[in-house]
């Protein structure tokens, strides 16, 4: 079971957006997935309510996280997606503690690059694998937009693993959420859908690499 936590101290970076679109992608591909909305703002729970479907179970709140995860594992969940509030407080630390991988969505920009550092530090302190995902980026025209290139160099200078792809700023991502869907369900051949698919494949590869590393550690212990 892959526990993916979306975290960033910065509000509006795209935590709930990515959690919902990936959730919808999992549902479309019949991957048993549990959504956990650990943000009192309740964005993911709202999307789930609008969706009104049974394909993605949802747990709301931060209490009993360990028990919720154990139950999901017993029920055969392959993925757990945990959305968290934009702060660096105890519930976020607890979610990160349970994570196999932390996704830190980051808009490209000075303030955003600065703001993610608290979250990166939490992941480092808790020794959790993490990756920054550049979100709401200007569309690529061949190479990265200069603002994205800047954000990537800042991450590289800080030795922060950053997904090589990007999620482009795209109104279809908001529009589909308003209908309780993911961009893949709105238009499976859109560029937004392709980007979410690319992100999913990159995350899958990361989990495989993390598992292989864990197995190696277990064998040498
Ligand atoms: N790639 C994107 N393209 C267009 N709009 C986006 C994108 N990512 C996020 N948004 C919009 O930005 C706002 C904040 O995103 P949200 O996921 O709620 O951030 P967070 O959960 O980190 O606070 C929402 O209105 C969302 O629809
Ligand atoms: Mg949110």
Automatic annotation (TrEMBL):
Give the source's domain of life in one word. Bacteria
**What span is annotated as the signal peptide, if there is one?**
none
Q: Which residues form a coiled coil?
A: none
Recorded hits in Pfam families, A to Z, give: CbiA
Q: SUPFAM superfamilies given for it?
A: P-loop containing nucleoside triphosphate hydrolases
Q: Which residues form the CobQ/CobB/MinD/ParA nucleotide binding domain?
A: 5-134
What is the protein's name according to its record? ParA family protein
């Amino acid at each position: 079971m892959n526990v993916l936590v979306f975290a960033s101290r910065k509000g509006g970076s795209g935590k709930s957006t990515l959690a919902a679109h990936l959730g919808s992608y999992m549902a479309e591909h019949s991957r048993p997935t549990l959504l956990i909305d650990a943000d009192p703002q309740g964005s993911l729970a709202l999307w789930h309510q609008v969706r009104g479907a049974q394909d993605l179970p949802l747990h709301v709140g931060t209490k009993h996280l360990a028990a919720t995860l154990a139950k999901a594992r017993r029920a055969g969940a392959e993925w757990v997606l945990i959305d968290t509030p934009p702060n660096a407080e105890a519930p976020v630390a607890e979610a990160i503690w349970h994570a196999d991988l932390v996704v830190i969505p980051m808009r490209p920009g000075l303030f955003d690059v600065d703001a993610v550092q608290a979250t990166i530090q939490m992941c480092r302190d808790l020794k959790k694998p993490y990756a920054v995902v550049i979100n709401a980026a200007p569309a690529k025209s061949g190479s990265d937009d200069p603002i994205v290139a800047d954000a990537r160099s800042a991450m590289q200078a800080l030795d922060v693993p950053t997904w090589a792809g990007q999620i482009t700023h795209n109104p279809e991502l908001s529009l589909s959420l308003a209908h309780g869907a993911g961009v893949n369900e709105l238009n499976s051949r859109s560029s937004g859908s392709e980007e979410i698919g690319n992100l999913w494949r990159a995350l899958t590869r990361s989990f495989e690499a993390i598992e292989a590393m864990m197995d190696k550690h277990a064998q040498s212990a």
